[in-house]
């Protein structure tokens, strides 16, 4: 999502009580980004077992993340946090060949997981660690991610401040907190005392950002000479970058300009239709458009793809092929716009009742101020336009993948009724809808994410020598991605009674085994306590029942 830290914090927080409102208005005028938008950091780790000198996961069916089909049963040996052996131990339907099994001594930890599916840990490429506007403590966000198998996240903008994120990154790396691995991509210009308006200022900020320890930069837009200087300097000094091409700057700097300057990944989709224009140069904005009116912003965006060159036309092909040649990554975050095509689906997702904090629910509610809460006049017409918008967008993304392009999995949760963790699985379903084979979906969620982050030597696949980040689930996720949701998938038992199956069982990060269902139970408790404390329940907008 696009947001401006100080602005969004100020506008969002001031929806609270009167006194707080006045106080915050003062704070908002004076506070720095770092001071104004920090959420509560995660407490010391109380969850997870290990790492073990030797851990053997016995009898799993392996989906390794490379695109290889499932194979099993295999035994996987992990020593401390490294995968040291993957041993085939038999054939489906036959007893395990015990003589082939890796040896366990009395100190070895063994998990018997016969028939379970094992995948690499998931990488969420667009993962804001909550915000004060959402009222989401880091523990809540991390546990929802980890409960859904997410073991690495890229924080695109470091909205809680770079120092804060680096502190959490460091503690996560040492496994002092229950959290995925964290990469910090600072919002361009964050912390700068004055606006960056020249190429020299841009280069100076980029170098400072690296010196502070950031992993990369998240851009939103700026004038061309600043963009050019910042992206190319960042690349020269070896860091990576992501960009949400916001509508205010796309007329003069679109995705092609970024890719040519050396941008690593584009977020969402803005700036790509603009690169595909052939019979116009500016989006056909309604004439009373105002960017600060999000109803305008998102409704007009729903008409954008059909203003671009049609699929498989010459211009469409040329743009795609140039992006492919530049080894450019697409991180579509399909899910975060899904309410645009089906608002009720997003609002009434079954997990909200139990897992959505009341503060987050209030943040989602229709408002002229909160970012992504433009639901005060969302009509059938807008939903239909967005359905068509999705079709054209998905066609591009799927074909990009078919021609060898890297497409990753990012959720952008915490906005527009999309909940951490759950929305990541929804993103997988939407890649599937775009045309990806489930194995291609898993590859996007794992190996391609690691490649896009420059972590492919240690993460992204289940292979000997790599770090032990893994997802274990009782059901086959290729047959039904829904089994990865914390709420599982619906089946019916022999008594004709509906039941749930699946839900990630264990998430392993850095050789430490987390009980994914317990993490979800912790979140459930946090939500119950918050509701009790605030004496509130979840109500749909405008309804008092
Ligand atoms: Zn975002």
UniProtKB/TrEMBL annotation:
<protein>
    <submittedName>
        <fullName>Amidohydrolase family protein</fullName>
    </submittedName>
</protein>
<dbReference type="InterPro" id="IPR011059">
    <property type="entry name" value="Metal-dep_hydrolase_composite"/>
</dbReference>
<dbReference type="GO" id="GO:0016810">
    <property type="term" value="F:hydrolase activity, acting on carbon-nitrogen (but not peptide) bonds"/>
</dbReference>
<feature type="domain" description="Amidohydrolase-related">
    <location>
        <begin position="399"/>
        <end position="492"/>
    </location>
</feature>
<dbReference type="InterPro" id="IPR032466">
    <property type="entry name" value="Metal_Hydrolase"/>
</dbReference>
<keyword id="KW-0732">Signal</keyword>
<dbReference type="Pfam" id="PF01979">
    <property type="entry name" value="Amidohydro_1"/>
</dbReference>
<keyword id="KW-0378">Hydrolase</keyword>
<dbReference type="InterPro" id="IPR051781">
    <property type="entry name" value="Metallo-dep_Hydrolase"/>
</dbReference>
<dbReference type="InterPro" id="IPR006680">
    <property type="entry name" value="Amidohydro-rel"/>
</dbReference>
<feature type="signal peptide">
    <location>
        <begin position="1"/>
        <end position="37"/>
    </location>
</feature>
């Amino acid at each position: 999502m696009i947001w401006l830290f100080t602005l969004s914090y100020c506008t969002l927080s001031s929806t609270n009580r009167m006194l707080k409102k006045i106080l915050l208005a003062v704070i908002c005028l004076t506070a720095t980004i770092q001071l104004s938008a920090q959420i509560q950091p995660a407490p010391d780790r109380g969850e997870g077992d290990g790492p073990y000198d030797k851990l053997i996961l016995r009898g799993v069916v392996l989906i390794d993340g490379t695109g290889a089909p499932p194979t099993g049963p295999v035994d996987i040996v992990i020593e401390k946090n490294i995968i040291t052996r993957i041993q085939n131990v038999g054939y489906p339907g036959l007893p395990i060949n015990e003589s082939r099994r890796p040896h366990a001594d009395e100190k070895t930890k063994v998990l018997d997981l016969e028939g379970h599916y094992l995948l690499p840990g998931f990488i969420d490429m667009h993962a804001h660690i909550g915000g004060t506007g959402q009222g989401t403590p880091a523990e809540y966000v991390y546990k929802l991610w980890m409960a859904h198998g997410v073991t690495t996240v890229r924080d695109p903008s470091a909205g809680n401040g770079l120092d804060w994120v680096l502190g959490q990154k460091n503690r996560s790396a040492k496994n002092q907190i229950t959290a995925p691995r964290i990469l910090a991509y600072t919002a361009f210009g964050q912390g700068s005392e004055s606006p960056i308006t020249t190429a020299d200022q841009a280069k100076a900020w980029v170098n400072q950002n690296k010196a502070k320890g950031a992993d990369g930069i998240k851009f939103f837009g700026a004038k061309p000479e600043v963009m050019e200087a910042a992206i190319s300097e960042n690349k020269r000094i070896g860091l990576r970058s992501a960009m949400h091409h916001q509508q205010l700057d796309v007329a003069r700097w679109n995705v092609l300009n970024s890719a040519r300057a050396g941008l690593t990944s584009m977020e969402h989709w803005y700036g790509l239709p603009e690169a595909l224009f052939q019979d116009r140069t500016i989006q056909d904005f309604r004439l009373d458009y105002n960017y600060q009116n999000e109803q305008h912003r998102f409704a007009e965006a729903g008409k954008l793809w059909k203003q671009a060159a049609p699929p498989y036309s010459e211009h469409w092909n040329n743009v795609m092929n140039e992006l492919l040649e530049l080894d450019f990554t697409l991180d579509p975050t399909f899910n975060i716009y899904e309410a645009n095509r089906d608002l009720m689906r997003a609002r009434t997702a079954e997990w909200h009742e139990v897992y959505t904090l009341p503060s987050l629910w209030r943040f989602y509610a229709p408002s002229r101020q909160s970012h992504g809460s433009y639901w005060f006049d969302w009509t059938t017409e807008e939903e239909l336009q967005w359905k068509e918008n999705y079709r054209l967008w998905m066609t591009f993304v799927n074909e990009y993948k078919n021609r060898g392009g890297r497409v990753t999995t990012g959720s952008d949760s915490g906005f527009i009724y999309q909940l951490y963790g759950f929305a990541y699985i929804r993103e997988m379903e939407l890649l599937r809808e775009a045309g990806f084979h489930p194995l291609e979906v898993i590859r996007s969620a794992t190996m391609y994410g690691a490649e896009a982050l420059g972590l492919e030597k240690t993460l992204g696949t289940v292979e000997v020598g790599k770090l032990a980040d893994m997802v274990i689930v009782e059901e086959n996720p290729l047959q039904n991605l829904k089994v990865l949701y914390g709420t599982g998938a619906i089946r019916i038992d022999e008594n004709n009674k509906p039941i749930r199956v699946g839900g990630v069982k264990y998430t392993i990060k850095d050789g430490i085994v987390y009980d994914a269902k317990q993490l979800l139970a912790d979140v459930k408790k946090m939500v119950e306590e918050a509701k009790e404390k605030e004496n509130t329940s979840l109500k749909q907008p405008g309804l008092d029942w």
